[in-house]
Amino acid sequence: MEQGFVDTLISPEGKLEVLSKAEVIKLLDTGKGGLYKMFRQCALAVLNCGSTIDDGKELLDRYQSFDINILQRERGIKLEIRGAPAIAFVDGKMIKGIHEHLFAVLRDIVFVSNEVTDNPKFDMSTTEGITDAVFHILRNANVLRPQTNPNLVVCWGGHSINRAEYNYSKEVGYQMGLRALDICTGCGPGAMKGPMKGATIGHAKQRFMNGRYLGITEPGIIAAESPNPIVNDLVIMPDIEKRLEAFVRTGHGIVVFPGGAGTAEEILYILGILLHPDNAEIPFPLVFTGPDSSREYFNQINDFIGQTLGEAAQRRYKIVIDDPETVAREMLEGIKQVREFRKSRSDAYYFNWALRIDEEFQRPFAPTHENMRNLKLHKNQPVHVLAANLRRAFSGVVAGNVKADGIRAIEEHGHFEIHGDVSIMDPMDKLLASFVAQSRMKLPGKAYTPCYRVIK
Description:
It is a single chain. The protein starts with a strand and ends with a strand. The chain has 18 helices and 14 strands. The strands form four sheets. It has a seven-stranded parallel β-sheet, sandwiched between helices. It has a three-stranded antiparallel β-sheet with strand order 1-3-2. The chain folds into two domains: 5-119, MCP/YpsA-like (2-Layer Sandwich); 142-455, Rossmann fold, CATH 3.40.50.450. By secondary structure, it is of the alpha/beta class.
């Protein structure tokens, strides 16, 4: 089934039904300033949902004949698609959730290009300007819901997890769904799909008909983590840093399931923000959880955090092993505190304006060989800045593992070299080696060749 190809013509349903001639020209422009390459890659990733491919380069190579065109008609636009993965269709008709996602891709790419990237209103050299841009992208996608009490739980975790961990993430999602909590994830497979799948059952049992399954992704990772069709709100952020900021600005609490380098990156991101002195008093429930078989995994994560960021970082989260109900209750109770805190300050429930996010966490990091080699991984700096640099190191490993550009860079120039103090390199090397040993870098059944070398 996965190898089949389908040609089709589809119309939008409520998302970006009309485009200007200039927008169409830019979307179909294959030149350097055009958007076609990004549009094609994101569209192909959306259509590849449910596949076993987690390699952006492999996906693009397999579907070289895939093409997408925009047709201007009297009543609006249509998408002409050729060579689409058959997995996106049932009896020749595109799955409705995937259909919606295609037009969400179109909406976000057009909006970011026209209203953010080329708009002098957003000063992307300041933290306030970047946060404002994140807000406007989310508002344009209609995912900011005023007049709603806080109830959105962000779930992080790996796309490559085993069956026991996947089933556990589903059970946690179910328990949160029973408590009318909504779910936000990176929208891909594994620990991003499980909580959503579980929550749909919990919501259905409680006759909670407006359950939200928010997926936030970015063009670099989407090919490796195709959005699952349970997602009923999909947002494509411009880069990984704005994607991470979108998670922590919209979510009211975070649950972390087992994962690999990408999950470590997310953990370091949120801990670095929470360790900033300006955020010391801001409530933000953060729980690490997994089945009993994942106990050692979280011991390793906890040890790594203790050895690199210290006890202050360890105090910002709780570890709950093999107890989905306790996780759901912790989130419910933590989000009540978030609500009281924001209510007392007249802060918005739908966007966490109060959280201070340092420029170190906002500036896009290009994981080139030179940038990876020059990362400042030493303890002679504020702990939240060290967290930002560690986050970049893991971001580079993710790029080398699954992102098309990163994979090509590794093929061309060899391993990324990661340098730093021995007190940091030793625990980092140990943690990455454990991810490799536990098959957390690639989907099960795929051989993993490391893209990095830790230099001590």
